[in-house]
Amino acid sequence: MAAITYLLLTMRSRRLTPARLAVAAGFSAVFALGLIPILA
């Protein structure tokens, strides 16, 4: 949820850069890795 919010805020402020997109992808990856033990 944090990654989506971050991505939407940067898109609205028109400051979306490749680095900021990579940060959002990192948040999503951490979230996905955190779900593995819960769902396994």
Plain-language structure description:
- By secondary structure, the protein is mostly helical.
- The chain is 82% helix and 0% strand.
- It is built from 2 helices and no strands.
- It has helices at 2-12, 18-39.
- The two termini are 21 Å apart.
- The mean pLDDT is 86.
Feature tags:
elongated; 2 helices; mainly alpha; 40 residues; 0% strand
By DSSP, the count of extended strands is 0
**What is the helical fraction, as a range of percent?**
over 70%
One letter per element, helices H and strands E, the order comes to HH
Radius of gyration: 12 Å
The helix count comes to 2
Identify low-pLDDT runs: none
**β-sheet strand percentage:** under 5%
Mean of all residue-level pLDDT scores: 86
SS-based class: mainly alpha
Report on the biggest sheet: none
3D shape? elongated
* Amino- and carboxy-terminal Cα gap: 21 Å
Helix/strand layout:
Blueprint: H1 2-12, H2 18-39
Helix pairs in contact: 1-2
Quick overview:
This protein is mainly α. The protein is built from 2 helices and no strands. Helix 1 packs antiparallel against helix 2 (18-39).
